[in-house]
């Protein structure tokens, strides 16, 4: 027999294994809110519970308190571009007017030969792809957290950029290369910082996008002047049409946005519409019929809601020597709820953000996040 005063030997204290799901729900939400937004699609694949949580209002409310997200908005005119950011107010109890702050920022694009580059965002970085009017292989990258530009790795060859979209961590550039008007696709991997060729679209039609190019079901979707949407699958080059509902002449000034893998497009004639992928048809978002129809719209996701921006009434501003014609910039936040009956929108009151010189049109509205 062992001495009773001696400590017991080889006794293992077993403890039940801890799991993330065993944590209190409020702790889980606090943790998930701090995960970079670009990783939310991966979290959604973990479980149905995770998929529900990353889309929950609680997540977006905590992220708003942390001020994790912002919009970068660009207006382009004959004399150049004006950039603004839309951010949450710094104080903890903002008034309605202070809730979203519209701040002018100095973003002098460093390329002297490219005035209107294509632009897409991945996480906190904005990628500017040159070649909109003159063939180019250049790319510039803006870190939205510091406001600093750096020159990215040039693509394999100069090309005229037709459409640019993001799928996962890759930027896909559909363009025309060489004198033979031959179409190719290159992808830039933001993780490995490398370019590689991607399959050529089986539809070699005109890929000039007249509205922001979006990503839907891991495909690059471009809205075209012809009143149609063409989606390109970078895995095999296959293409499909979404058959937009109208040949609205204002399509080239409309907005498009994907939220929770649902495509939303705004038409001045019909208002906000969404694409029912299962039924293969376009439907009007309910609950918004009372809203005034507007033009020159840009849209982006902002803390789980759809931010709709537009230019409105001309205002004369008297100066000592002359009057300047300006356009007011307005914003409305819309919460979207999907059910078996469709998508229903709940709109907040519109907010006047500021003004720009008349003639400057909405060109980019990019959602960035840490």
From TrEMBL:
| Gene3D superfamilies, sorted | Kelch-type beta propeller (2.120.10.80)
Q: Which SUPFAM superfamilies match?
A: F-box domain, Kelch motif
- F-box domain sequence ranges: 17-65
Matching InterPro entries: F-box-like_dom_sf, F-box/kelch-repeat_ARATH, F-box_dom, Kelch-typ_b-propeller, Kelch_FKB95
Q: Per its record, how is this protein called by name?
A: F-box domain-containing protein
The protein's organism comes out as Brassica campestris
